[in-house]
Amino acid sequence: MQFTKLHGAGNDYILVDGLSQEADWPKVSEAVSDRHFGIGSDGLIVVAPSDQGDVRMRMFNPDGSESEMCGNGIRCFTKFVLERDLVPGHQDGITIETGAGVLSVTPQWENGRVVRATVDMGAPVLRAPDVPVAPSNAGLSDQSAMDAVLLEGLGVAPSDMLFDAPITIDGTTFTVTAVSMGNPHAVAFIDQPVADVDLERLGSLMEHHTAFPRRVNFHIVNVKGRNRITTRTWERGAGQTLACGTGACAMVVSGRLHGQLDDTVTVEVPGGELIITWPGHGSVIMEGPVQEVFSGDWSA
Question: Which residues are catalytic?
Answer without folding.
Answer: 70, 244
